[in-house]
Structure prediction request, 238 residues.
Amino acid sequence: MHSNENIEVIVVKNPEEGGQRAFEIIKEELENGLKVIGLPTGGTPETMYTALRNSALDFSEVVAINLDEYIGLEADHPQSYKYFMDEHLLNTKPFKETYIPNGMAPEAEETARYNQILQEHPIDLQILGIGTNAHLGFNEPGSSFDSLTEKVELSEETVEANKRYFESVADVPKYAYSMGLASITSADKILLLAYGENKADAIAEAINGPVTEEVPASILQNHENVTFILDEGAASKL
Ligand code: GLP
Prediction:
């Protein structure tokens, strides 16, 4: 399997069970005084959000901070991450405060604003998905491990992977604002979810490969408290 003591790997049968396990971890953290949670978008966390929406958990004292947002999409664009979060969680569950980068705001202003928010609200629990190229948020291969919130360019592989949500590949935004790898790994605890064989290489490299900026998720090997929830496909190369 793997030899990294800081990393716990939980293998589940399917995304529904994965979402349920993630829900249970969040519930436990909430009982232990969770104040700030970092949240992802994408197909992967959908079952977790369903479990959260259908639960009686109370987030009214919790601050939610999202990882990233496409540049150039208005908040009410159906593929904006703001829209995704409202639909999948925030319209149903009230939080104390919620933050997501504003994809329409100018770069210098928006990155400074977001880094200030992160400084004021240290993340207790960061939930993550992972790209097929092992990106975290939108930190593509080559991103500095020291990065804070930045404007980032999507790799070709990511544009390809995300085109399924858009009418054509030309409609996929090419830039995003993303929390950086230093911002992400400053969280006390990290929970990464991945399902499907197309994530198996990224997972194997993240957990067992060399720690290198060419594999953004390999930075997690340097973190003290990381849990991966994987289905059998995503875990198949461990
Ligand atoms: C997207 C997001 C990531 C996400 C990843 C995987 O581009 N920026 O935060 O983890 O790609 O997405 P999915 O869960 O749909 O496979």
